[in-house]
Amino acid sequence: MTLTVGTDAYFTLDGVRAFWAARGDTAWAALSDADAEVHIRKATDWVDRNFEFIGDKATGIQRLKWPRRYAEIEGHAVDETTIPWQVEEATAHVAELYRAGTYDLEGILTDDAAAISMQKVDVITVQYDTSKRLQGADIPSHVYELLSSVTRNNSGGLKRA
């Protein structure tokens, strides 16, 4: 099923592929459209669930939080049909975590194999090195930083008419 920006995705498949290709990542070009779209939908859902955005939904019946009315970024009004580049890029970053298999829908890093520091078979014991288990945590913090100008309670803040 094709992605529909504003309905089930914040960024197009071509947009995500171009975003990563411009950064030298070829993995997205190798994915089937269906697999890539699943990762983009999951990323959109994660972004939608984890942030409160400036402004109000453009319509009362839309599924996603963007597009929005009364949104202003750095002193500039955002058109009611526009999804800001910050939201698109955040979606691309989270989609990459899903593509790499290191994130689940709850936003939990799931590549525990690299973090196992000890295993014991009899009376089963598994010990994790948490510094390794949390690898990749800088990408979610980058997402928070990227979205700071379009979320509530920040210096970029909400201005209502």
Question: Any key phrases for this structure?
Answer:
single chain; 161 residues; alpha+beta; two-stranded antiparallel ribbon; two-stranded antiparallel sheet; 6 helices; 6 strands; 38% helix; globular; disordered C terminus
Provide an overview of this structure.
It is a single chain. The protein has 161 residues and is α+β, with helices and mostly antiparallel strands. The protein has a domain at 13-106 and 137-150. Helix content is 38%, strand content 11%. The protein has 6 helices and 6 strands. The strands form 3 sheets. The protein has a two-stranded antiparallel ribbon with strand order 1-2. Strands 3-4 form a two-stranded antiparallel ribbon. Strand 5 (116-120) and strand 6 (125-128) form a beta hairpin. Helix 1 (13-21) crosses helix 4, helix 3 crosses helix 4 and helix 4 runs antiparallel to helix 6. The radius of gyration is 18 Å and the shape is globular. The chain starts with 12 loop residues before the first helix and ends in a 14-residue tail after the last helix. Residues 132-138 and 155-161 have low confidence and may be disordered.
